[in-house]
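Why should sequence recovery work at all? Because a backbone constrains its sequence more than one might expect. Tight turns favour small or flexible residues, buried strands favour hydrophobic ones, and helices have their own preferences. The token representation captures these environments compactly. In the example below, the structure is given first.
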């Protein structure tokens, strides 16, 4: 299960198809060095994204 404390880089390693979903939410930082140290929660705050909705979508993949 994907949760808010997972790092973006871990998410992409676990589910590469999540990159497309993140980009559809406006997170173009997939390959950014910050994604190595940024959690899903932190990325949502930075990008103004509804974290609960994103997590639901990610866990449906």
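From this structural description, the recovered sequence reads:
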């Amino acid at each position: 299960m994907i949760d808010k404390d997972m790092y973006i880089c871990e998410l992409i390693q676990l589910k590469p198809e999540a990159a497309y979903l993140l980009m559809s939410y406006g997170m173009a930082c997939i390959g950014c060095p910050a994604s190595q140290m940024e959690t899903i929660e932190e990325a949502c705050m930075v990008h103004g994204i509804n974290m609960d909705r994103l997590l639901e979508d990610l866990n449906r993949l």
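A few observations help interpret the result. The longest helix spans residues 51-60.
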